[in-house]
Amino acid sequence: MSKFNSDIKKYKKYLGKNTLVLFFTQLGLWALLLYRINNAIYQSGLPRLLNKPLFLLCALSQKWIEIIYGTSMPHSVCIGSGFYIGHLQLAYKVKIGANVVVVENVTDNSNVVGVPAYIMKGIGKRFNEKL
């Protein structure tokens, strides 16, 4: 949950509101909380008997976020701490560095780093495409 605490700090810094107000007004923060829980279950290595029902709940919560908020954050995505999410979609197998503010959709198998955010192509090779 330390990553989620960093996410909350980023929201506070970005929006200038207290935690309670953020929880009641920012759907992106709810989406991020569900992602953090789903990703923890995905990476947990729990026994199959326990993992399958939890994974079903994860899939349902992910679909709920997609329908209600219009944001897709699959459990397989790797998001660093201190993340602020606007209205966007993340594709599968995306890695986002710590303290990155992403404001546009991110495609499959992308690594996103920097301020402003940009997509890395492979290790150390930068696309000219800024997000």
What does this structure look like?
There is one protein chain. The chain is of the alpha/beta class. It has one domain (2-130): UDP N-Acetylglucosamine Acyltransferase, domain 1 (3 Solenoid), CATH 2.160.10. The chain contains four helices and seven strands. It has a five-stranded mixed sheet with strand order 1-3-5-6-7, with no helix packed on it. Helix 1 (2-15) packs antiparallel against helix 3 (27-43) and helix 3 (27-43) runs antiparallel to helix 4 (48-69). The longest helix is centred in the middle third of the chain and has 22 residues, at 48-69. It is globular. The mean pLDDT is 82.
Q: Can you tell me the number of structural domains?
A: 1
Largest sheet: 5 strands, mixed
**What is the N-to-C succession of helices and strands?**
HHHHEEEEEEE
The unreliable regions are: none
Structural class: alpha/beta
Strand fraction: 5-15%
CATH top level is Mainly Beta
Helix proportion range: 40-55%
Question: What separation lies between the terminal Cα atoms?
Answer: 27 Å
Average of the residue pLDDT scores: 82
For the record, the CATH architecture stands as 3 Solenoid
Number of strands: 7
Specify the overall morphology.
globular
CATH fold name, please?
UDP N-Acetylglucosamine Acyltransferase, domain 1
Strand order of the largest sheet: 1-3-5-6-7
SSE layout:
Layout: H1 2-15, H2 19-25, H3 27-43, H4 48-69, E1 78-79, E2 84-85, E3 95-96, E4 101-102, E5 111-113, E6 118-120, E7 126-130
Tell me briefly what this model is:
This protein is of the alpha/beta class and 131 residues long. It has 4 helices and 7 strands.
